[in-house]
Amino acid sequence: MLLQQLVNGIVLGCVYALIAVGYTLVYGVIELINFAHGDIYMLGAFFMYTFLNFGVPFLPSFVLAVICCIIVGILLDIIAYRPVRYADRLAALITAIGMSIFFENIALLIWGADIKRYSREWIPHFFKKLFINLPNEHFQNVFLTVSYLQITIIVLSIILMIILHLIIHKTKMGTAMRAIAQDKRAAALMGIDVNRVISFTFALGSGLAAVAGIFIGMYYNSIYPMMGYIAGIKAFAAAVLGGIGSVPGAMLGGVVLGMAETLGAGYISSAYRHGIAYAAMIFVILFNPAGLMGKRKVDKV
Amino acid sequence: MLELRNVHTFYGKIEALKGINLKVNKGEIVCLIGANGAGKTTTLLTISGIVKPKEGDVIFDGKTINNYSPDKIVKLGIVHVPEGRRIFPELTVEENLILGAYIQKDKQKIKENLEKVFTLFPILKERFKQLGGTMSGGEQQMLAIARGLMSEPKILLLDEPSLGLAPKIVERIFDIITEINSEGTPILLVEQNANMALQISTRGYVIETGKIILEGSSKELLNNDEVKKAYLGE
Q1: A contact test, residue of B41, B65, B99, B151 with most A CBs within 10 A
Q2: A91, A257, B156, B225: which has the fewest Cβ within 10 Å?
Q3: B79 to chain A: which residues are within 8 Å by CB?
Q4: Which residues of A touch B81 (CB under 8 A)?
């Protein structure tokens, strides 16, 4: 059972990590906790649902849903956050909470409050097949089933994280993102279009959140307008646990949180799964306030 | 080539610049001297588009650029090396320099410009892979100037390049400024170190509480009694 829980934990952790990097990217660049980020993840699941429902094949639906979320993320930045960019930080925070409520209600309006499910025939059969199914003739005492969907989630998450890392560290846009994170004014003096780079940051985070939403839609096969709330808070906790602002931290934080949650659900009680996840975060923050990979900031006078 | 006409800039309700008139011609080093809080930095920030003038015009190469965003102004060729250097401490020297060439699309050109700044500042070649924040103040100032040069500016705005540096290093920095200028880049130099600034510049302006109170050739200003008393400590 431990092995099975570990696999489940990694899968869930990968999804949290995909959402958490969006929080951490935006926080790193403009020091805003984008509370509407969890709702982008929800929208990803619903866009996917809508396209599949219209009869669009699986892969194009996937791509279209991600693109739609990227557009929503960019619009969110331009319409909601840009006007308050140089205002008090509290103003931006309230805006973020407002946008989150707005998205949830828009989703309620469009898709209704009922739980929606992806039909069996929408999802390629491949994902349901089992990659590992134990016990078999070689492993008599090991119990473990891993589906191709789980493998896909893990592998694709890792690939996306590697791509993200390369974008941040090897491209001009990524260097500009890091520069803005350190000194917005100096970045502007380099000729960097700061607003464009910030929108790009939102686009990156939103695209990854959309992928996470679609995965969860397929994995749990139940999507609903408020799903972004808990997942968003959880991913935010993961970002904090890993050290907010640090991308590898968010990845690690996501996996740690996912593990804590599944192991807690498996060995203690599934009723306490959320509580256990947050307890794990609090435990880490208690001993290391900057998070696992965060840098301790020293304010210079 | 760069001209400020009756520029008024406000921070909220506070009028920081009260009608600045200033000109930089081709090939010149022009210095702007004055005390703390007189409006020197604000003048530069207004030129580079970080703050917008409420009244008056900033004109570059015949174009009024008041409402240009900072990145567009850099693309025009106006490069501002900010006060306190403001290099990116968590980026390597290499990344800092590459960002300086952000508007340059041609990779070959970026390579050439890197070689150029290396001949000007050999120390940066040694420190190429080091984080900007781990260097000494003087080295950071060199990096800040080199980063500004990476985009091949048509005019360079330097804000307090001597700030917080040892006299020996200040001398070197000023030598380099003269060298950059002799290769054809006009420079607007903002300094508290009036003596040094006037020695290397062609013309100078003295700013006091948001107004230009004196202007003239640097030689004249060096011999002006008021300037001597207030800024040269004689």
Answers
A1: B99
A2: B225
A3: 189
A4: 189
Number of domains in chain A: 1
- A182 in contact with chain B, both atoms CB, cutoff 8 A: yes
ipTM: 0.91
Q: Write the DSSP symbol of residue B131.
A: B
Nearest Cα to A38, choosing from A94, A90, A113, A104? A104
In a domain, A297, yes or no: no
Identify which of B75, B81, B99 has the shortest CB distance to residue A179: B99
Q: A187 — contact with chain B (CB < 8 Å)? A: yes
Q: Is A234 contained in some domain?
A: no
Instruction: Inform me whether the C-beta atom of residue A119 falls under 8 Å from chain B C-beta atoms.
Output: no
pLDDT 10s per residue in chain A (301 long)? 788 999 999 999 999 999 999 999 999 999 899 999 999 999 999 999 999 999 999 999 999 999 999 999 999 999 999 999 888 889 999 999 999 999 999 999 999 999 999 998 898 989 888 988 888 777 777 788 999 999 999 999 999 999 999 999 999 999 999 999 999 999 999 999 999 999 999 999 999 999 999 999 999 999 999 999 999 999 999 999 999 888 899 999 999 999 999 999 989 988 998 899 899 889 988 988 888 888 765 554 4
- Bridging pattern class, strands B53-60 and B2-11: antiparallel
Identify the domain containing residue A115 by its residue range: 23-226
Shortest alpha-carbon distance between residue A189 and chain B (Å): 6
**Hey, is the C-beta of B147 within 8 angstroms of any chain A C-beta?**
yes
A151 part of a folded domain: yes
| Domain membership flag for residue A291 | no
